[in-house]
Amino acid sequence: MIALLLAAALIPRGAQAALVIEDVSGLRDFLAAAGKHVPSLSPESLGPVLRKAIGVDLLAEQPEWGLALRGARVVAISRDAVGLAAPLLNPRVTRRTLAAWRAERDDRAGKVIGKRLFLASGRGAPVMVSSLAHPVPLPKALASPAHGPAWLYARMTEPLTASVLALEASGQGLSARGMVTARAPILAGVAPAGCDGSPPACVRAGLGPAGRGAFEVALARLRMPPQEGLRSAARAEERLDSIDATRLAALTPTAVFDGPPAAGPALSGFVDPAQFDAALAKLTPIDALTGEVPAAAYAAHLLYGELLRNAGPLTLTGAPLPRNAAQIELRLPLR
After folding, report:
1. Which of 177, 190, 221, 287 is the least crowded, having the fewest Cβ atoms under 10 Å away?
2. pLDDT value at residue 156
3. Omega into 226 within 30° of 0, i.e. cis?
4. Model confidence over 228-280: pLDDT tens digits?
5. Contacting residues for 1 by C-beta, under 8 A, at least 6 apart
6. CA gap 27, 171 in Å, rounded
7. E-strand stretches of 171-324
């Protein structure tokens, strides 16, 4: 029964996010390609992290867990736990491995119910196991993208409510296509003209009430100043013309509101990781001593610079859907 329910696109109750994997090979190939630039992102490096958190290395599953060869693996994240639900081939073998895994730490929980395994770690591990064992259906509007080799559910920050994205991954990159829902229209009309040239980042959109609110939330999260004209704009272009790595905490986009409409999608944008790394490369160890943000930026260049130079641009497109929803597609090429 649980397997049938999961096939019908259910998610753990209370989860902030859930990743459902039917076929991990594409994600593994993507991480292997990324790991050539950043070894800590390789499947071999991430395996121990997965085993510690959810017991099973989903990128190279251990036979001692007795998992079935096929069937969805569900990884769920809440505020105080991370968990796994997976189908079993040999529950007897699984129970022995589960007992040993739980004994290693006191913040782990797990159950075998029929031919399903439920594992969790963290302060809320018992609650997470119960949530995994008793999933709830996705809202009907979000169910259509919940298919393919892997798909991702995530709760969103108001005024957005949730998103479901079908993931396609390979050694050449990652794409995510699905929908976002809100309590009011997100996109409306057409995007304005703009984003010309090659700025480091730019987004333009025809906005509904929830779209304007989402832009305001994004600006606040990025510590950028509020924009009075945004609250009434039907169309907006937000463009980052340059990056001063010594003033990352004070970056301010150039905003154009209600510019002339343009043909194409209601939402269009891009981020060029290579330009961000080129700016970060100008930082020195002395700059890193001047504050938390420069220090983090300097470390990001040292750790992830090669990946940033070989990824992207990250592109975003979107279109309005009925019932306060929007279709979204993201693409991240990898060289």
Report:
1. 221
2. 94
3. no
4. 999 999 999 999 999 998 888 788 999 999 999 998 999 999 999 999 999 99
5. none
6. 8
7. 173-182, 201-206, 235-240, 254-257, 267-271, 314-321
- Token code pair at residue 290: 């001047």
Is 200 within 8 Å of 242 (Cβ atoms)? yes
Nearest by Cα to 205 from 154, 261, 153, 249: 261
Quick one: which of 136, 184, 154 has its CA closest to 330? 154
In angstroms, the CA 37 to CA 35 distance is 5
State mean pLDDT over 100-108: 95
How would you class 191 by CB atoms within 10 Å of its CB: exposed for 0-12, middle for 13-18, buried for 19 or more? buried
- Neighbouring-strand partners of residue 178: 165, 328
Task: Give the tens place of pLDDT for each residue, 272-307.
Answer: 999 999 999 999 999 898 888 889 999 999 999 999
| Count of Cβ atoms closer than 10 Å to residue 240 Cβ | 20
Instruction: Specify the pLDDT at position 64.
Output: 94
Nearest residue to 46 via CA among 65, 36, 32, 63: 32
Looking at the DSSP bridge assignments, the partners of residue 101 are: none
Angle (deg, nearest 10), helices 273-280 and 292-309: 130
In one letter, which amino acid is 304?
A: Y
Q: Is the pLDDT of residue 54 over 60?
A: yes
- Match 């013309």 to its residue by tokens: 241
